[in-house]
Automatic annotation (TrEMBL):
Protein species of origin: Futiania mangrovi
Record-stated family: Belongs to the PRA-CH family.
Function in brief: Catalyzes the hydrolysis of the adenine ring of phosphoribosyl-AMP.
EC number: 3.5.4.19
Binding site for Mg(2+): D98, D100, D102
Gene: hisI
SUPFAM superfamilies registered for this protein in UniProt: HisI-like
Cellular compartments annotated: Cytoplasm
GO terms for biological process, alphabetical: L-histidine biosynthetic process
Protein name: Phosphoribosyl-AMP cyclohydrolase
Cofactor note: Binds 1 Mg(2+) ion per subunit.
């Protein structure tokens, strides 16, 4: 586990970014032809990779300004505030992007399961011993 993950890492109460910071982040990102970048959500306390979704400029700006993770739903064609229907919200701990600016990493404090299947994360299908194995059950 990287040194910056763990219970000893302080979780900010509610990160808010200034308009100047939001603009600088948006300028640094390389959005695809649909105006999106992939966003990987990782638990800030454990380092567990929770899910992947898409963000557009509006979702990134809202995430940085409010501290509540907001994605772009391609199926709905609208902003998706994580947990708006399930209550399983993600609170922003830290916002990062890669060296090419084409992928975002959001370190989050997760409430409840991250996956819409009610599993802790979306990566529960594993290829093991030449077969696909489901390695996580839904949370009761």
């Amino acid at each position: 586990m990287p040194a910056d993950f763990g219970p000893e890492s302080p979780l900010p109460a509610q990160p808010t970014a200034s308009d100047a910071t939001v603009a600088a982040v948006l300028d640094a990102l390389a959005f695809n032809d649909k105006g999106l970048v992939p966003a990987i959500a990782q638990d800030a306390g454990t380092g567990e990779v929770l899910m992947m979704a898409w963000m557009n400029a509006e979702a990134i700006a809202e995430t940085l300004r409010t501290g509540r993770i907001t994605y772009w739903s391609r199926s709905r064609g609208a902003l998706w505030r994580k947990g708006e229907s399930s209550g399983h919200v993600q609170r922003l701990v830290e916002f990062r992007y890669d060296c090419d600016g084409d992928t975002v990493l959001v370190l989050v404090a997760q409430t409840g399961p991250a996956c819409h299947t009610n599993r802790p994360n979306c990566f529960f299908n594993a290829v093991r011993d030449d077969r696909i194995e489901v390695i996580s059950d839904p949370v009761a």
